[in-house]
Amino acid sequence: MARLKDEVATRALEAHLHPGETLKHWAYGVKQPNIGLMILLFALAILPGAIAVALMTKEYLVGLTDRRFVVIRFSGGDVKVKEIVEYSRDALARKVKASKGGIFTHITIDDAQKPFVAKFHRMGMKQNREHSQAIADALTGGQANAA
Hints:
alpha+beta; globular; 4 helices; four-stranded mixed beta sheet
């Protein structure tokens, strides 16, 4: 798991903000392959399995502004942007499911054109847990489930 610095994350997200928009919260998350597939790959061969899982894992930086929820899919510690998806906060009503646990915060957006699923480990960045939980609360109107 990459451990990003806040300065790298905020710089990457601020490059994609609209004029007058303010970044409130940011977090680092991942989408890993199905656990059954991961176990199978590790059982076949530990090192090649670990490499395959690493290659199949998608890394995300997410940012919550006063207007939008911005998702950047990236690779590498220097945040090489692969894809940017944005959601209007107004359009997310009833499309977001989130849960907050001791280790992970999960955020799912059920959108036909732009679905999003990721989990945010509390150690992903310095304050990843606080930021990811604040994002979950803001997107669900405070209705994020405690896991």
